[in-house]
């Protein structure tokens, strides 16, 4: 059984640091790759070695498979961890690692390819009796045929790019009159985004919740799940708040969904970390959505409730070790919430707001975790995803985790650019979130930019000073102070507000 001695991390930012820290705890050396925009990045400084692979655009650096393989060979790295994004779900890269005798810390090329096609994935899991949303089993190109199928399924329907992700190539169609136009748009966007115009049609689930299960397989045929994550608070079909466990799953439903998730992983002979994503409707019926063949951004909440290090487990599985536990031995405790801190302006449709971190102070305290890749004074490069950090709060109960998260958000000091911190605090305080009665339309239903408008506040120290000043001014002058130089009025409060 080969023992990994040096890992090249084919990624950047917080996930690169996350992988390197776990590797270091296992006594494994690490290699960073970086673009010219990331010369001073924390992951570059943390690694044992670092290799420049190209200009800032990811297409010329982090997506250059040949340069990454070359860097691994030059540094003697015997394994590559792809993190998430970039090349993490690229079957060609997984195969290239295999062809060069480099261990790919992830699933096989065959699993990535099968689950990378939404239609292929649906066909595979259907054989294992995993529930599917009513819809087409094959790609549709004929508009008239597609319209007929949409009528049979029943409006509203969803047109989705087979190779899609992140909401691209996706259109909701409310009625037959708008079907043709929306299908043409979906196909066009799918071609421009993925080079593949294949689309399929499925029933659009109203008031859906996005529930995903963390699964793990080894190279000996064993597959388990580590329970669910609730990912329904999204903007532009991308997650911004995640938690584990979900507030609505009963033990029986959790068991049924967990078994379906394991079966979906077995459908593609999966090994490594992966996620099975489900849609849950208002009647608590669940349907397979897709599989992500990699580690997820939100994996920390699963780590918090299970006490497991998923990155270390990835490395062990990649070495050929069997999973060290059976399903019945895996337990969860407490509740964890993660928010993604983006350099975005929630008051301006969450558009990126790239700039310099003039102030950057992380929250601290019991049950608080910050996964990031920045420090004060650094710039947020506009070439990449604008996520600054992931803030995680863990407590015994969901209510306590929410309150802990609110406290941590208020302690997180970031200036120099707009962030999603204010929006995330709004989510934590909203009755729909606190009660657990929300779905993927949370932002659409409840969020308005006006709620984030700042109002002038007076802090406790200022209030105390004002009271003291008023008390002092009310005192009658004595003979002694009548002879003193006349006092000038205090401008403390005026100056304080002027410079705050």
Describe the structure.
With 500 residues, the chain is α+β, with helices and mostly antiparallel strands. It has four domains: 100 residues, Rossmann fold (3-Layer(aba) Sandwich); 70 residues, ATP-grasp fold, A domain (Dna Ligase, domain 1, 2-Layer Sandwich); 244 residues, ATP-grasp fold, B domain (D-amino Acid Aminotransferase, Chain A, domain 1, 2-Layer Sandwich); 39 residues, no CATH class. It has an eight-stranded antiparallel β-sheet, sandwiched between helices. Strands 3-2-1-4-5 form a five-stranded parallel β-sheet. A three-stranded antiparallel β-sheet has the order 7-6-8, covered by helices on one side. A hairpin with a 2-residue loop joins strand 10 and strand 11. Helix 4 packs antiparallel against helix 5 and helix 12 runs antiparallel to helix 13. The radius of gyration is 26 Å and the shape is globular. The C terminus is likely disordered.
What general form does the structure show?
globular
| CATH superfamily caption of the largest domain | ATP-grasp fold, B domain
Main structural class = alpha+beta
Provide the residue-averaged pLDDT.
90
Strand order of the largest sheet: 13-12-9-10-11-14-19-18
CATH architecture assignment name of the largest domain: 2-Layer Sandwich
Examine the coordinates and then state which fold CATH places here, giving the name of the CATH topology of the largest domain: D-amino Acid Aminotransferase, Chain A, domain 1
CATH class of the largest domain: Alpha Beta
Q: What count of structural domains? A: 4
Low-confidence stretches: 455-461, 476-500
Radius of gyration: 26 Å
Question: Treating each run of at least 4 consecutive H or I residues as one helix, how many helices?
Answer: 18
């Amino acid at each position: 059984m080969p023992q990994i001695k040096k890992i090249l991390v084919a990624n950047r930012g917080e996930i690169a640091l996350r992988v390197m820290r776990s590797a270091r705890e296992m006594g494994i050396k690490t290699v960073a790759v970086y673009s010219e925009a990331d010369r001073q990045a924390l992951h570059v400084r943390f690694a044992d070695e670092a290799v420049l692979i190209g200009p800032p655009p990811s297409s010329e650096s982090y997506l250059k498979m040949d340069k990454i393989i070359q860097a691994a060979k030059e540094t003697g790295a015997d394994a590559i961890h792809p993190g998430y994004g970039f090349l993490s779900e690229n079957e060609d890269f997984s195969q290239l690692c295999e062809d060069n005798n480099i261990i790919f810390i992830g699933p096989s090329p065959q699993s990535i390819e099968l689950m990378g096609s939404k239609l292929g994935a649906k066909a595979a899991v259907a054989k294992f009796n995993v529930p599917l949303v009513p819809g087409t089993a094959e790609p549709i190109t004929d508009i008239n045929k597609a319209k007929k199928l949409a009528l049979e399924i029943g409006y509203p329907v969803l047109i989705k790019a087979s190779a899609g992700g992140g909401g691209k190539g996706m259109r909701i169609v409310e009625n037959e009159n708008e079907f043709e136009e929306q299908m043409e748009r979906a196909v066009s966007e799918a071609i421009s985004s993925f080079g593949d115009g294949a689309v399929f049609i499925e029933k659009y689930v109203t008031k859906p919740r996005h529930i995903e299960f963390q699964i793990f397989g080894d190279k000996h045929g064993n597959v388990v799940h580590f329970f669910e994550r609730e990912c329904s608070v999204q903007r532009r079909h991308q997650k911004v708040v995640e938690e584990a466990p979900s507030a609505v799953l009963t033990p029986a439903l959790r068991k049924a969904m967990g078994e379906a998730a394991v079966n979906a992983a077995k459908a593609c002979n999966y090994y490594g970390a992966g996620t099975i994503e489900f849609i849950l409707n208002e009647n608590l019926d669940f349907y397979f959505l897709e599989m992500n063949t990699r580690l997820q951004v939100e994996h920390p909440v699963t780590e918090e409730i299970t006490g497991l290090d998923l990155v270390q487990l990835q490395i062990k599985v990649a070495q050929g070790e069997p999973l060290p536990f059976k399903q019945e031995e895996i337990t969860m405790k407490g509740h964890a919430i993660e928010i993604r801190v983006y350099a975005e302006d929630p008051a301006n449709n969450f558009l990126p707001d790239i700039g310099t971190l003039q102030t950057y102070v992380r929250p601290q305290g019991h049950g608080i975790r910050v996964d990031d890749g920045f420090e004060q004074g650094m710039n947020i490069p506009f070439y990449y995803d604008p996520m600054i950090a992931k803030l995680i709060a863990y407590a015994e109960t969901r209510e306590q985790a929410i309150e802990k998260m609110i406290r941590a958000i208020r302690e997180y000091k970031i200036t120099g650019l707009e962030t999603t911190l204010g929006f995330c605090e709004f989510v934590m305080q909203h009755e729909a979130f606190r009660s657990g009665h929300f779905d993927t339309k949370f932002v659409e239903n409840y969020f308005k930019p006006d709620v984030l408008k700042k109002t002038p506040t007076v802090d406790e120290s200022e209030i105390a000073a004002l009271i003291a000043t008023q008390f002092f001014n009310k005192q009658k002058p004595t003979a002694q102070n009548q002879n003193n130089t006349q006092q000038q009025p205090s401008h403390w409060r005026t100056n304080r507000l002027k410079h705050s």
